Amino acid sequence: MLTVLESTDSVLNAAWKMVADSRFSVFDALISYEQTAGRGQYGRSWISPQGNVYAAIRLPYTAPFNNTEAALALSCCIVATLADFGFDIKIKWLNDLVIEGGKVAGILLEQKGEKLVAGIGINLVSSPDSLSLRENAALPATSLYGVDPVVARNLTPEIIVENLADRLAKLDLGSFSTSWRNEAFSRLLWLNEKVCLDVDGSLVTGVLVGIDERGGLLLATGEGIQTFMRGAIRKVSE
């Protein structure tokens, strides 16, 4: 079921209210044409002008969505959905999606007990300008319209989210709980390139060589291959 709102403070807040009222089942989706207080990772605000995709989808609390690999597994589903429309998307660990060098989408997962809701923002028709981005953002922002206006002008938030929810509902979760890793690996941004990882202000530099079965980032450093479960990465300029 898809619920459409004209405006809300946050699609995540609206979704959780529906969960509390037993009106938001697994794989149900909600979109709003506008958010007045959208939120992103680490408590950041999410700029939410009309025309873009602001969605919440309830996910099943089962593998691969009940562990640390959930964001990457969901990223694979979003990438596959946008690929159906002709967009070649990369996954920037841990929960950003990138096209032609610009961030085009982000994911925020929220869990309450064994209930899990994903907030998804996709820049369909517009993207924040450089002055609106946080200082030292790893990538500029872009939109699907900016990449391919012919295709994007025929898309709507409803079309994208309905296709994504349908893909999720049709997943063979038993198979997907093991296959997501290969899918994510094939789309991993900066694979085999030198990156810098900021973990709570501590910087680690190494070559990005992959992800493990828990969604951890694998970096080849001077101390060998190390695994990291959190942090923000950027490419190191040679």
What report would you give on this structure?
25% of the residues lie in helices and 30% in strands. By secondary structure, it is of the alpha+beta class. The strands form 2 sheets. Strands 1-2-3-7-6-5-4 form a 7-stranded mixed β-sheet, with helices on both faces. A hairpin with a 5-residue loop joins strand 9 (202-211) and strand 10. The mean pLDDT is 93.
Structural Rg:
17 Å
- Helices and strands, in N-to-C order? EHEEHEEEEHHHHEEEEE
Relative strand content: 25-35%
User: How many strands, which pairing sense, and closed or not: the largest β-sheet?
Assistant: 7 strands, mixed
Low-confidence residue ranges: none
Total beta strand runs: 12
User: Structural class of the secondary elements?
Assistant: alpha+beta
Multimerization status: single chain
Helix content: 25-40%
Question: For the largest beta sheet, what order do the strands appear in spatially?
Answer: 1-2-3-7-6-5-4
Helices, by number, come to 6
How far apart the termini lie comes to 48 Å
Name the average pLDDT.
93
The gross shape turns out to be globular
Structure in a nutshell:
Helices cover 25% and strands 30% of the residues. With 238 residues, it is an alpha+beta fold. A seven-stranded mixed β-sheet has the order 1-2-3-7-6-5-4, with helices on both faces.
List the helices and strands and how they pair.
Elements: E1 2-5, H1 11-20, E2 29-32, E3 53-59, H2 70-84, E4 90-92, E5 96-99, E6 102-112, E7 115-122, H3 144-147, H4 149-152, H5 157-169, H6 173-186, E8 194-199, E9 202-211, E10 217-221, E11 224-228, E12 232-235
Parallel strand pairs: 1-2
Antiparallel strand pairs: 2-3, 3-7, 4-5, 5-6, 6-7, 8-9, 8-12, 9-10, 10-11
